[in-house]
Amino acid sequence: MPDPLLDVQELTVVFGGPHEAVTAVDRVSFQIAAGETLGLVGESGSGKSVTAFSILRLLQPPGRVASGRVVFDGRDLLSLPEREMRAVRGARISLIFQEPMTALNPVMRVGDQIAEALTVHNLASRPQAWKRAVELVDAVHIPDAARRARDYPHQLSGGMRQRVMIAIALACHPPLVIADEPTTALDVTIQAQVLDLLRELRARYNLALLLITHDFGVIAEMADRVAVMRQGRLVEQGPVRQILRAPGHEYTRTLLAAVPGARGPSGPPLD
C-alpha cells in the first residue's frame, strides 16, 4: 500500500509494571489508506479497543505502549509531544465510542457538545460552531435539527445519541475515524440505520474508517479489508471478500460460523 494514511507497526501494549507486565496487544501491524475501511474483528478481550486507544494515546495506567510505531500522515504519533497530540485527537483522528450515554456530557445540550469539538480546535467562533452543529445534527438524519440540538442526551433515544456521537466525530472533518463497536448498544433495526449512515458519510467525506467489532456480519457489510484479532495478536488479514471465501485461520472460521445464516466452518463462506 503506497503511503498509507495510518501505518501501525509492531504495536505492543502491556499492563502492569516492568516485572509483572501482561501483554494485551502483541506486535500488531496494519495499514489503512485514505478513504478505506478496515474492519478489526475479534471476540471481547482480544485487544481491539486497547489498540484503538493506543493509536490515540488514550491508554490509562497501568496500560502503556511497550514498543512499536503509529505513523499517521507521515508522523509517529507515539513520539509527538502531548500538546501536538491534542491537536490530532478530534481534528485529525476522531473516535466514536460504543456507549454514547457514558461518553456524552449529561448536563450539556448535544448541540453545545458538537460545537465544542470545533471551538477547542479554534476552527470556528461560538456562533459559527453552533450553526455548524445544527447542520451536523441534520446531516446525521435527526429530524427537526435546530430543536433537537438544544436537547440533553437523556431526551434522545439510543439511536439518536449514537448519531450525535457520529456528528461530534465528523465536526472537524477528520480524515480518519475510529468506530469502536458503534452499534453494540442498539437494537437490530437501529443498528442497520447507523451502519447505513456511516456508509453514507464515509462516501460523502471520503473518510478512512477503522471499524472495531466482534460481528463478522458488520465487517462483511462495511469493510474493504479485515484484520482478525485473537488474544492480542492479528491471526489473519486481507481483503474482505478473500477472507470470507477462504478463511485461512481456524479462529476466523469460528467467527464466521457465528454469523446468522452461516452453515459453520465447513459450510459455504459468506459472499
Structural notes for this entry:
- By secondary structure, the protein is of the alpha/beta class.
- The protein has two domains: 1-92 and 176-241, P-loop containing nucleotide triphosphate hydrolases (Rossmann fold, 3-Layer(aba) Sandwich); 99-173, no CATH class.
- It has eleven helices and ten strands.
- The protein has helices spanning 48-55, 82-88, 100-103, 110-119, 126-139, 145-148, 158-170, 188-205, 216-222, 240-245, 250-257; strands at 6-15, 22-32, 37-41, 63-72, 75-76, 93-96, 176-180, 208-213, 225-230, 233-239.
- The strands form two sheets. A six-stranded mixed β-sheet has the order 6-7-8-3-9-10, sandwiched between helices. A four-stranded antiparallel β-sheet has the order 2-1-4-5, with helices on one face.
- A hairpin with a 2-residue loop joins strand 9 (225-230) and strand 10.
- Mean pLDDT is 92; it is low at 263-271.
SSE order and pairing:
Blueprint: E1 6-15, E2 22-32, E3 37-41, H1 48-55, E4 63-72, E5 75-76, H2 82-88, E6 93-96, H3 100-103, H4 110-119, H5 126-139, H6 145-148, H7 158-170, E7 176-180, H8 188-205, E8 208-213, H9 216-222, E9 225-230, E10 233-239, H10 240-245, H11 250-257
Parallel strand pairs: 3-8, 3-9, 6-7, 7-8
Antiparallel strand pairs: 1-2, 1-4, 4-5, 9-10
